[in-house]
Amino acid sequence: MSLGRKLDPKPIHGALSVVELVDEFFFAYNAARLREATLLFADKCTEADVTVGVTLSGALTPTGLGTAAIVPLMEAGFIDWIVSTGANLYHDLHRSLGFSLYQTSPFVDDVELREEGIIRIYDIVFDQEVLLKSDAFVRKVLEGPEFQGRLSTAEVHYHLGKYVRAIETRRNSPVRSVLGAAYELGVPIYTSSPGDSTLGMNVAALRLAGMDIGFDPEADVNETTAIVYGAKHSGGRSAVVIFGGGSPKNFILQTEPQIQEIMGIDEKGHDYFIQITDARPDTGGLSGATPAEAVTWGKVDPEQLPDTVVCYTDSTIAMPIMAAYALAKRSPRPLKRLYDQREALLQVLADSYRANRPVDPDELLEDGYTGGVVSR
Questions:
Q1: Which H or E run includes 276?
Q2: Is 368 part of any domain?
Q3: Number of domains forming the structure of the chain
Q4: Could you write out the three-class secondary structure of 308-352?
Q5: Smallest Cα–Cα separation from 232: which of 198, 271, 258?
Q6: In this structure, is residue 320 part of a structural domain?
């Protein structure tokens, strides 16, 4: 039996790079898991034939990680598509619109903050006017003709990103929002629960006011599934990098059960799985579910379990380290521009679905299977 890597520590010096820090000083426990996740992302997920999907949950963009880490990874071609909470996309707009967020102590008087019109996200604060003015911008944009009708969330975010990027350019802003960069780079962004954010709340208000505007969740399911199937069908591989958990985690992983269980197409699961989380598996929640458990659902290829890593740490610690390491070690990849390929990918998926229809449902209805629910 191999004893593994010898732990051979040496003194840390002042000129330490991120690459040397990860390679030589993340020895054990979750530091070692972070090293494994970082190496898996940089060495394997960034290979040319791998399609990389990233999920974002928790308040990541208010910290500044959108501009600082996510956008550079998108520009380098290391992120091909995203599933994010709507809140991360909404709060990422503030700086692009010229508003400021500030770092503070988490141990403040929240009643006093409320009286002063200050909003708090743990140790980040900003004026309530930031929300009101951001809402006004979003509502004005959503009144445009391109938003009318039922759209996939990728379409909504693409059109919104066009306006955000125009403002950033006009202001000559050093800030690049995730939405603005995604518009330019052709990176589709989906929100699994679009109503659960201020963006969704503004869409709902405009709908109530009589506008023909709304989300198409079925389109989201089909488009995300088509992205994964397109990657695998063409002989490539699929990687999922999960920051946090929750609904975005399930939405990116359910693409494989959609292919296998619902559409009856032969597939094995995602090839690479990285999750940064603080959730425990023993409470039964999805955010803590391990890649081994995901194998039972067909979400992860069982043959690829060695290429799965779960690191129990804060995403705001892991993301900058993983981004800096990958950008230092790997050359940029050509952009896949998956947003532009949505229709073609959907056609490939539809053709395979028609050729591999699941078992005839009538076979499942024999011998009283439905308990009399279905009458014939």
A1: strand 272-277
A2: no
A3: 1
A4: EEEEECCHHHHHHHHHHHHHHHCCCCCCCCHHHHHHHHHHHHHHH
A5: 271
A6: yes
127 by Cβ neighbours in 10 Å (0-12 / 13-18 / 19+) ranks as middle
d(CA 168, CA 180): 8
| pLDDT per position as a tens digit, 184-235 | 999 999 999 998 889 999 999 999 999 999 999 999 999 999 999 999 999 9
For the chain, the straight-line distance linking the first and the last C-alpha, in angstroms and rounded, comes to 62
With respect to residue 11, please indicate whether it lies within any of the assigned structural domains: no
Which residues, at least 6 apart from 225, have a Cβ–Cβ distance to it below 8 Å?
A: 255, 258, 259, 263, 349
Are 187 and 66 in contact, with CB atoms under 8 Å apart? no
Set 6, 10, 268, 299: catalytic member? 299
Known catalytic residue: 299? yes
**Amino acid at position 68, single letter:** A
Closest CA to 193 of 274, 93, 349, 89: 89
| Cβ neighbours of 10 (radius 10 Å) | 7
pLDDT at 302: 75
Count of beta carbons in the 10 Å neighbourhood of residue 26: 18
Query: Of 56-60, 217-221, 267-271, 276-280, which range is least confident?
Result: 276-280
> The domain spanning residue 99 has which CATH number?
3.40.910.10
Greater confidence, 307 or 93? 93
**Cα 203 to Cα 166: distance, rounded to the nearest angstrom:** 21
Q: What is the dihedral of CA 342, 348, 353, 355, to 10 degrees?
A: 170
Whole domain around residue 211: which residue ranges?
A: 18-357
Would you say residue 8 has pLDDT above 90?
no
- 179 contacts: CB under 8 Å, gap ≥ 6: 89, 92, 93, 157, 160, 161, 164, 165, 189
Helix axes 342-355, 217-233, angle to 10 degrees: 80
Of the listed ranges 45-49, 118-122, 271-275, 369-373, the one predicted with least confidence: 369-373
101: pLDDT strictly greater than 50? yes
Q: What count of other Cβ atoms lies within 10 Å of the Cβ of residue 168?
A: 20
Tokens of 251: 């939405």
What token pair was written down for 278? 């603080």
Does residue 366 carry a pLDDT above 80? no
Q: Within a domain: residue 308?
A: yes
- Whether the predicted pLDDT of 372 surpasses 60: no
The predicted-structure confidence for 241-258, as pLDDT tens digits, reads as follows 999 988 999 999 999 999
Which two tokens mark 297? 């659902």
